[in-house]
Amino acid sequence: MTTVLFVEVGWGADQHGQNVTKAAVRAARNAIEFNSIPSIAKIVPGGYRNMLLRINIAAPHHDQIDKDAITAVFPYGNIIAVDLQQGGAIFDSGIAIREMGDSSSDMIVVNVAVTVGY
Q1: I need a labelling partner for 29 at 20 to 30 A (CA). Which of 1, 13, 83, 110 fits?
Q2: Residue 36's pLDDT band (boundaries 50, 70, 90)?
């Protein structure tokens, strides 16, 4: 990526089940779901098919994230990297509900930055 157009950020949580991938998918969707960029076809040479994406994820237990689940969030563009790093947070949700898959009362929180360019 030689030209960065913008960086979108998002966050996601899994309050029940302690699933870091679920929280990361929610964070990735949050980063892109409120955007409409109709000018990409005019700005990026080759349009959407040549748009490049770099996904940075900060999460507790980052080594447990399913990268394929993350890349499936993005409907177009070429993902050049999904970088994982320790970060995010683990908070106490106040309750563990075994019927919802909880093994503890931990709430997993993940942050994502999506860099878009060409």
Answers
A1: 1
A2: confident
How open is the CA angle 30-112-96, to the nearest 5 degrees? 75
- Does 68 have pLDDT greater than 90? yes
Give dist(CA 5, CA 52) in Å, integer. 10
Rounded CA separation 14/21 (Å): 9
Res 37: pLDDT: 86
DSSP for the chain reads: ---EEEEEEEEEEESSS--HHHHHHHHHHHHHTT---TTHHHHSTTGGGG-EEEEEEEETTGGG--HHHHHTT-SSSEEEEEEEEE-SEEEE-S---GGGT-SSSEEEEEEEEEEEE-
Q: List 57's β-bridge partners, or say none.
A: 84, 112
